[in-house]
Design goal:
Chain lengths: ~325, ~230
């Protein structure tokens, strides 16, 4: 079975949970920006959480399925259609052979995920099927999908069955209102900020700059200053690291973060909140709440427990 | 090692810091430590990468936390000594066609050093380099060992495209662009070798700790090697 790209949308890429074990040769993680939404989409079609799926950005693609498929769409809010009407999101959904699905614009959030039962059958590059657009690594030569691309799936065909009548409640996993503070752990160089900048980081609202992408989010509106310049040698950075370049506009490194950086690290987004930040759009605002590493870890483990419980009930449902 | 520290890098990674400057002893210790950590195969660790003066360790938060993992790491860090660094005697030769269209900043580097272009090339070729770290981009090597007379400040305005294979100087560092990228380093030449190819069994041509020398080739040889 294959999916034909009739129209590519603004940035549609193949993603899994990322590429690990290669940072020593400068290869970063990439993978889904909202990893939780990707995992849930996969669970809804009975896949391994790490199966390759499509990450859809702002304007979705138009896709033709040449055979029957079981799909699930999660993440930001969209109104997808096939020839028979609305494609319901956050549930397993059968697409008939030959059907064309128009994913449409995201109404809120900035990324949606479309998983197909069996997963996308693209070849792994350095142990991962994720696309690193910035370094041109991964499926399709490491680029976003374009018109005419044919994306293979692992399974041949799924016979049409009755649609599921249940769906997941997105609210625990997706902030529709995009106003919840994002957890931020102070970084190694936070104490080098001047007093006002230390306060601003947690008291002010930042605007997500238009240059923001899968590599990083630029935070605008309140330039932050160091007490005095810092000369640093390049060292490791990770998705979630908040760097402060000389212009004073912090950059949050996202999924396609480079493996090393030389700017001061004023903070790190708590891993549990990184998917939420990834759903904010350029032009939207973000506020940060100070979080200790312990609290960040506790909240992360709490969410993982919720996901494990949810996975169990989805598996039961899919059996029924 | 008593001067090291382990600091969190957010909640799923940490840095083992061995120093805060660029020097051979610290860098070699970082590379040796990264090797020892890989060999220890610590549960929950999924990425280990040495840098100039630190090692970055990324771990799976569901299977490890900072306190537990730093205790495990500490015992390995304490057992590492610079002397244990096994010096690899193999030297990788990187052929470079200097100047002309391949090295648009060669004249500027010569002017900055107040020496002739040929002397710049001689000094770049005569030095012994070691790969300090790979970073910034897949397969991008940061090399230690640049002759101090060749240290040249970066361009005030970075170029929007630097071709793949470009050999460049940025301050005290020299490196090679694995693919076409924007960049602000001074480009003095270009190698026909492919620094990174994800389809190769060993995708990166160079790895941390590797010894490197540059050799001078002409445009004809460059073209022949490219074919």
């Amino acid at each position: 079975m294959s999916i034909h790209v009739v129209a590519p949308g603004s940035l549609t890429t193949v993603q899994d949970l990322g590429r690990f074990g290669h940072t020593h040769i400068g290869v970063g993680h990439a993978g889904a920006m909202d990893a939780v939404a990707l995992r849930l989409a996969n669970l809804l079609v009975g896949n391994d959480e790490n199966a390759a799926a499509l990450e859809i950005t702002l304007r979705g693609p138009i896709l033709r399925f040449d055979d029957g498929a079981l799909i699930a769409i999660t993440g930001g809010e969209i109104e997808a259609h096939d020839e028979n009407g609305i494609v319901t999101t956050w549930r397993p959904f059968h697409v008939r052979a030959g059907c064309t699905v128009d994913i449409g614009h995201l109404r809120s959030g900035s990324r949606a995920y479309l998983a197909v039962r069996g997963g996308l059958g693209v070849e792994a590059v350095l142990d991962s099927r994720s696309t690193d657009v910035n370094t041109c690594l991964g499926p399709f030569g490491g680029r976003a999908l374009i018109m005419g691309d044919v994306v293979p799936t692992m399974l041949h065909s799924i016979e049409h069955t009755v649609h599921a009548t249940w769906s997941l409640d997105p609210s625990p996993w997706f902030d529709e209102r995009a106003d919840r503070p994002i957890g931020l752990i102070p970084g190694a160089h936070f104490s080098h900020l001047d007093v006002q900048s230390q306060q601003s980081l947690f008291a002010r609202e930042f605007r997500i700059g238009s240059q923001s992408n899968r590599v990083g989010y630029r935070l605008q509106g309140h330039a932050l200053r160091l007490r005095e310049p810092l000369e640093l040698v390049s060292e490791g950075v990770v998705p979630g690291t908040v760097q402060l370049p000389p212009d004073g506009e912090p950059i949050v490194l996202m999924a396609e973060a480079p493996t090393t950086g030389g700017y001061p690290r004023i903070g790190h987004i708590a891993a549990v909140d990184l998917p939420r930040l990834a759903q904010r759009r350029p032009g939207q605002t973000v506020r940060f709440a100070e979080m200790s590493p312990d609290e960040a870890q506790t909240r992360y483990l709490q969410r993982e427990r919720e996901l494990v419980a949810l996975r169990q009930s989805i598996i039961e449902r899919l059996k029924a | 090692m008593t001067t090291s520290s382990i600091e969190p890098l957010g909640d799923g990674a940490l840095l083992i810091r061995l120093g805060d400057s660029i020097d051979a002893a610290t860098n070699r210790t970082a590379i040796a430590l990264a090797g020892a950590l890989c060999a220890a195969d610590i549960f929950g660790v999924r990425d280990i990468a040495p840098a100039y003066a630190s090692v970055c360790v990324r771990y799976e938060m569901s299977s490890a936390d900072f306190a537990t993992i730093s205790t495990r790491l500490r015992s390995i860090v304490d057992s590492i000594k610079t002397a244990e660094y096994s010096v690899d005697t193999d030297v990788t030769e990187i052929p470079v066609c200097y100047g002309g269209k391949f090295g648009p900043d060669l004249d500027a580097v010569a002017a900055h050093a107040s020496i002739s272009v040929d002397h710049v090339i001689d000094r770049h070729v005569d030095a012994n380099y070691e790969v300090a770290m790979l970073g910034f981009m897949p397969g991008f090597p940061y090399l230690r060992g640049l002759d101090p007379t060749l240290h040249t400040p970066r361009l005030a305005t970075p170029r929007t495209r630097v071709p793949a294979g470009s050999v460049a100087i940025g301050g005290a560092q020299t490196g090679i662009y694995p693919r076409e990228l924007p960049g602000g380093w001074r480009i003095i030449g270009r190698t026909p070798l492919r620094l990174f190819d994800s389809a190769r069994e060993t995708p990166a041509l160079l790895s941390p700790g590797q010894k490197v020398r540059f050799t001078r080739i002409g445009p004809d040889e460059f073209a022949a090697m490219r074919r």
